[in-house]
Amino acid sequence: xxxxxxxxxxxxxxxxxxxxxxxxxxxxxxxxxxxxxxxxxxxxxxxxxxxxxxxxxxxxxxxxxxxxxxxxxxxxxxxxxxxxxxxxxxxxxxxxxxxxxxxxxxxxxxxxxxxxxxxxxxxxxxxxxxxxxxxxxxxxxxxxxxxxxxxxxxxxxxxxxxxxxxxxxxxxxxxxxxxxxxxxxxxxxxxxxxxxxxxxxxxxxxxxxxxxxxxxxxxxxxxxxxxxxxxxxxxxxxxxxxxxxxxxxxxxxxxxxxxxxxxxxxxxxxxxxxxxxxxxxxxxxxxxxxxxxxxxx
Length: 297
Prior knowledge:
Elements (H helix, E strand, L loop, with lengths): L5 H42 L5 H13 L1 H10 L2 H30 L17 H8 L1 H8 L3 H11 L16 H12 L8 H8 L3 H17 L1 H4 L7 H17 L9 E9 L19 E8 L3
Antiparallel strand pairs: 1-2
Helix pairs in contact: 1-2, 1-3, 1-4, 5-6, 7-8, 8-10, 9-10
């Protein structure tokens, strides 16, 4: 079944109340009209009951033709009754105006049920303290060391994507980069937009804009940063450091394969019979991980 929005439900409820009020008003007027007819019939009967049927029909016809006069003239004989009718009409008009005003308000209001703002404690300011006294906490949150983060900020600080012609400037570049690195360095529930927004103390839309700005900047700097030139001295030094790190972490035979890329795991049909538990991954599947390895001489 199609889902009915809360706005449509409110409008339908107000329209139903409006119809109920009109029905009540109609029944009151019919009641007054019937009472007026009864008074007219009583006066005609007291004036002469021996008249023929044609005269009675003529009298009834004249009474029906002047229904409105008989309704309000009967009330006008009593000041209290006339006041009561006037107040009833005024109350009916006020109720109808109120319902119409509520209908207009429901149609114009963008947020019908405003939720109270959730309390949050931003932690961005802690990064400055961690960068000085607790670099391990800084690295655990942003996945880079403080000097690397500072160098990244210096490289991207003047990029035009972080500036606009509006009177409302963007967030500082270090803040946008920190939000992006925190999100890129985590996965699962810890990387949801809601959690990042609570950590940074800002809206979800602002987090999305920070991700977008940093990604645009990274794509434009990709070719200038992600490269490897064997003839360039700095790249040679970096390559030797990487080889040494691989040799220390693995074995001398793997020293030349310092560029490795982990690929998508391939799920197995069933648990292997030999060392089956070793193939059990974090996604609760038995799988083999593909790895691309390139060896430089």
